[in-house]
From TrEMBL:
InterPro entries: Spore_Ger, UPF0353/GerABKA_families
Coiled-coil spans in chain: none
Protein's UniProt keywords contain Glycosyltransferase: no
Identification of the protein by name: Spore germination protein
Source organism (scientific name): Cohnella faecalis
Family: Belongs to the GerABKA family.
Keyword Transmembrane helix among record annotations: yes
GO biological process, one term: spore germination
UniProtKB keywords: Membrane, Transmembrane, Transmembrane helix
A Pfam family assignment: GerA
């Protein structure tokens, strides 16, 4: 069979050569099946190639093979001859096969790629083109409640691993003709569908173009999860903080789209990405808006306080014990001294021992089977803490500090942000061990400087607190009443800045 100069092989229309070329190309794929047959009384040979397990066999048998075999079988010879006068491929495509998704391919390699992702290829003797029929039937997970973003009040619907299901969930949130969903092919060797969703009459066109530009520049063999996309399109890969928000919740995505943000959905993962992201978004939950504003504001303030605890309390413990015991109230200082009387390690070492033990227990709890994972974390923490105190390795007050710190971390609704705070805590501890409270203050200043300089798709990460404008603080530390939140975030430069007339 002839090949083009670039090495690609065309479909010639000579049945034996085309079928042999496809068989050679797919020789190492034993799950590709071929079914040869005749087009009824026409006597024209044909074959279908399909992938076992991914192609819908029932559709192939009933809608393709049966339709093609039976079409000319009962017709008189006069009708058969008149049918032959029409282009055969057009006749099959437009009059015989009752299927909506069909396309044509003129290359063996293009045909092979489509077959390997679930399409069915129809080869006909005398036709120099393969007809590609959409017949994908993969096993998908049903729509369930998100496990990583549980709510007391809110929709019990989450994304799954099928892109078409996820885009349909977005469409189901209301009749809206302005929602645009643009699809891309990503991955050099294993191609996947990726969708960019935004509101055409709200989102800033410059933001949308920037998202599309970064996605078009992705140059990697395979994208197994949206975390790859996040790392390849973020502004600063050296920052410990996520610059795109991942979520399993369609309601969170819709709310972000209504503000003027852009969503990125990848086939094969239930996690969508929202860009741009700000620091305050890391501590916000959809439930803040489903409850009354007073309750939502108090819960949000509690989260900010919990972040302070998870980040700074172990460092403050080390600095007070090692450098500034005079700042501790006398009775508490005496109690701490008694509890540390037989501890052979410095404050930093005992804090590191307990913090690392807690992190190991957390990781083990995630990897263990679900029925025993949570019990392992709780029971293991109690046993290790009690045993460490009894052995004189750590003090009782440190066990309390580490326990409160670990619990405070779980109040962060965004898992990736929780990871960042957990590991930045160790940096704060080392700063406190070196310079005491001065080290903690320097760490805070360094962290604040980094957050102010950091950007997500051109939007300041510290927004809306930076730049300082009280008028846009209605959704920062507190959540103002919905009647007062009439405008969309100015930092996103929405085309329609008013959300409530």
């Amino acid at each position: 069979m002839k090949q083009w100069k670039d090495g690609r092989t065309p479909i010639t229309g000579r049945y034996d050569e085309d079928v042999a070329a496809l068989n050679r190309t797919m020789a190492t794929n034993s799950d590709v099946h071929v079914r040869e047959f005749d087009l009824g009384r026409l006597g024209i040979r044909a074959a279908v190639f399909f992938l076992d397990g991914l192609s819908d066999k029932e559709l192939i048998e009933e809608q393709i093979l049966l339709s093609l075999m039976a079409e000319w079988s009962g017709k008189p010879n006069s009708e058969i001859r008149s049918t032959n006068r029409l282009p055969l491929l057009e006749t099959i495509r437009d009059q015989i096969l009752p299927l909506s998704e069909m396309s044509e391919a003129s290359l063996i390699e293009e045909t092979m790629l489509k077959v390997l992702v679930g399409s069915t290829a129809l080869i006909i003797d005398g036709v120099p083109t393969a007809l590609l029929i959409g017949s994908i039937k993969g096993r998908t997970r049903t729509v369930e409640e998100p496990e990583t973003e549980g709510l007391i009040r809110g929709p019990r619907v989450g994304f799954n691993e099928t892109l078409s299901d996820n885009t349909a969930l977005l469409r189901r949130h209301g009749e809206n003709g302005s929602m645009a969903i643009v699809k891309f092919k990503v991955g050099l060797r294993a191609q996947k569908d990726l969708a960019v969703a935004y509101m055409e009459d709200i989102a800033d066109p410059a933001l949308v173009d920037e998202v599309k530009r970064r996605i078009a520049k992705i140059n990697i063999d395979n994208l197994p999860e949206s975390g790859y996309v996040e790392q390849l399109i973020e502004d600063n890969y050296l920052s410990p903080f996520p610059q795109a928000q991942s979520t399993e919740r369609p309601d969170r995505v819709i709310s972000s789209l209504m503000e003027g943000r852009v969503a990125i959905l990848l086939d094969g993962t239930p996690f969508a990405l929202l860009v741009p992201v700000t620091f305050s978004m890391l501590l916000q939950s959809p439930e803040d808006y489903y409850e009354r504003w007073i309750v939502g504001s108090l819960v949000r303030l509690l989260r900010f306080f919990a972040v302070f605890i998870s980040l700074f309390v172990p460092a403050l413990y080390i600095s007070f014990i090692s450098f500034h015991p005079g700042l501790i109230p006398t009775k508490l200082a005496i109690s701490i001294i008694k509890s540390r009387e037989f501890v052979p390690f410095s404050a930093l070492m005992e804090a590191l021992i307990m913090e690392i033990a807690i992190e190991i227990l957390r990781e083990a709890g995630i990897r263990l089977p679900k029925p025993i994972g949570p019990a392992m974390g709780i029971v293991g923490g109690l046993i290790i803490g009690e045993a460490a105190v009894q052995a004189g390795i750590v003090s009782q007050i440190l066990v309390i500090v580490v326990a409160v710190t670990a619990i405070a971390t779980f109040t962060i609704p965004f898992y990736s942000a929780g990871l960042a705070f957990r590991y930045m805590r160790f940096v704060a501890m080392f700063c406190a061990a070196l310079f005491g409270l001065y080290g903690v203050v320097l760490f805070f200043l360094f962290l604040s400087t980094h957050l102010v300089k950091l950007k997500s798709f051109g939007v300041p990460y510290a927004s809306p607190s930076i730049p300082y404008r009280v008028s846009i603080w209605k959704d920062l530390l507190i959540r103002a009443p919905l009647r007062m939140m009439k405008k969309r975030p100015e930092l996103l430069h929405p085309q329609d800045p008013i959300r409530k007339k």
